[in-house]
Structures
1.
Amino acid sequence: MTLPLLIKQAGFVGGVDRSLDMVKRAKAIFSDAVSSGRAEFRQGTVEALPFEVSSFEKVCTVNTVYFWSSLDAGFLEIHRVLSPGGRVVVGFLPKERMGRLGMPIDIFTSRTPESVITALTSAGFTNVRVERPEPTTPWNVIVAIR
């Protein structure tokens, strides 16, 4: 699902990026949704999300776990901002695939599905499962419930 479609269909979308430039860009691109209160973009990190407790029913993050300083801290924060029964979806390429792509290790921290599952479980998530959009895809999509 693309961000424009999500903003169109959801009641509210909140976004976080560590880059102030990206936050400004998102606010400009989606200015109508921002001005109407349907979208909000804030600067921050997953380890210290700039949202209140139980702010969201769903959290989706794609291609970000490579940049987190701590899976444990990130998933604890996501757990904090999700309401009880809320769902988190994490999409990423696993470590074995990232290794084949030659991604620079000083920028990307490759993650195994097992490490993501362990961190989610440690943070208090339940019903943690790996889904694949297609059986042959290298993508991992991990879904869990708060």
Note: DSSP finds six helices and six strands in the chain.
2.
Amino acid sequence: MQTQNIQLRSFRPPCSRPRRPPKAVRELVDALLTPLVNAYPLAEIFWEARHRSIIERDASGRRTCTQEWVCGAQLRVVGERVSAVSWTTDLTAQGLLRAFAGLGLRLNAPRLPDRVRQLTLKLDDAATLQLRQVAAAELTTRAARRLSDTARVRVEMDEYLRGSATALGRSRQWRGRQALVSIELPRPDGSLLRRARVLEGTCGPEALRASGLLADVRTAWAQAPHPAGELAGRMPVVVAPGFGAILFHELVGHSLEADHVLGGASPFAHCTYGQQVSHPELTIVDSPQPEVGCGGLFVDDEGQTPVTVTLIDAGTIAGMLHDRVTATMVGAPSTGNGRREDFRMEPQPRMRNLVVAPGPHSPDALRSDIRRGLYIERLAEGRADLASGCFTLTVEAGRRIQRGHLGAPVRGVLVRGNIRATLAGIEGVGNDWQAAPDPVFCGKRGTVITGVAGPTVRLGELEVLS
């Protein structure tokens, strides 16, 4: 994607660049991996240590702090007729051997090195973790003080070490540090205003201020919702730059995850590369670049180097998102999209940053001839049934379009349509590209953080329900 004349944000991946693990770790995982790689085309050992501090301030001002420590490893093999997974929280030699036996394979148990009796994973020292916890507690107080006494503020601080070995002598290990700040404010009608930011490895007041989270919450709170009772029927829909691109996360990103396509559970399952499915102005990529969203990363959860994948190129199907399993199925390299929530879950094709490329039109031009329509600024939640090709999305924030101009605020309406028909009906793409500062919590069999970015896009007519 061309990025000239585009305002990029300074996101930073929460993880470091991968490195070789210590010698003791390499020897232990290679010993475990040897019988697996000799018997199966795809074998992997994944290990993880994580410390999480969760600090919450509720509407009454009461503050609670909980801490979670977790360590574990997963062994996995995939063959022509075999797929087996086993995981353990016991990282001693005996615990790892029990996990090996848990695969249920007819293989001799590996001989582990005598001098290495445990998979040792070290995080920051306790004093450093305590300092970060104190900083997070102060952050919750500051955020609530600047917003409202009824604000619920939650800070999750993750410190983690992950590693993966997919071949003998090819193990990689990486560290991560991440602070997730989320704010909830109850509206008078009982609904919640929610906003969140992923801070760049720190949780101090300066990082919070630079994130724009508090200003975003105040702006959203000041926009009084307009009754949406009369906004219903079929009408043109326009999605805003930035967070509006979550529509394409749901409609395009998930539809072109290779496990869905190859399994037949995608509206594009029977399409071919180069097939025209949308407007020639529409180009969509999935990018690991940290400059375009908070889903950027240097390495995926299979230890693979991520690459940018073009999904839609000038309206035609151009690619899919692969992990190692789906890549092996079609004889292609992994695209570095193998992601998982933790060591208890298998990796699967998941998005990083879903990015819609800018087009030629000004946003005003895209709305100018719409007499009555809907402008979507934020989507709260929704469901895309990939098998049927239908979707229903909830609009958290939007505006009426009246005679080409943005009118009264709208919230809580539903937008319903068909994925293929909606993409085919796109009428134009704007030149006002933005990266959304908010994380997108993608919940496909486990939650991972992704990002979205894009310009204003004019869709065709969709069904709007109050």
Note: Residues 1-10 have pLDDT under 50 and may be disordered.
3.
Amino acid sequence: MPSSSDPAGPHPSAERIAAYHERRLAPGEAEEMRAHLAACPGCTAELLAFAECFDEPEDSASGLSAAEMDAAWRRQRERPAPALPVRPAPAAPPPRRSTRGSRGLTVFLGLAASLFAALSLVQWQMISRLREPRANPPLVNLAPVGSLRRGTEDVSVLEVPPAARRVWVILDPVAEPNDAAYDAELVAPGGGRLLLLEDLRGSEKGNFRLDLPVSLLREGEHRILLRTRRGDGRAEVTEFKVRVHLSPPPVP
């Protein structure tokens, strides 16, 4: 039996060669067998052996004639051997390089890029906040209790929006402030000190501006006591009142 690695391709079995010899193959299969025999001397020799062993001289209907066998064998010997394909030699694999250094460098560069992006974002947010115009805190001007400058309104109202963090309270005493030290005490609606500001100095306009955190304020009427400390130890007290209204946060 011929080797399966011949250039003619896969070889038929002995039973298939015998079936071809006995003309039991379909026309298409017989045509494929003829094409294979034309290129494969081994299978042609095996077919000739079948013809010599099993053919009867007087039965011309089975197998091939001796003239056909001789002609097939002659054509096969005159057919040049097919050239084997030349396969290029496999290229030598490139030398393996250590990936530890490159992997560490990749991780380092990735971390550096992430850090740079985070710093850039923080810097951009800070610049945006600085560029935004800042609105002044809610402000109210107060005149002393019993003063004619209070007008018709009984108690001034300070409206505090939800986003406010601080408020400004301007105290306008009747007398012009002098060089004496002043203290301001913020009293809760139900009584009790909320905040004490010491060593206050009057402005050029003769008033005092108190910067109060919203977190200290309560809903309702607050009292502010402005005290003037004299050298003899006595204190002159001026009272102010303000009604605080804390606006509720918007409903989402």
Note: The CA atoms of residues 85 and 117 lie 58 Å apart.
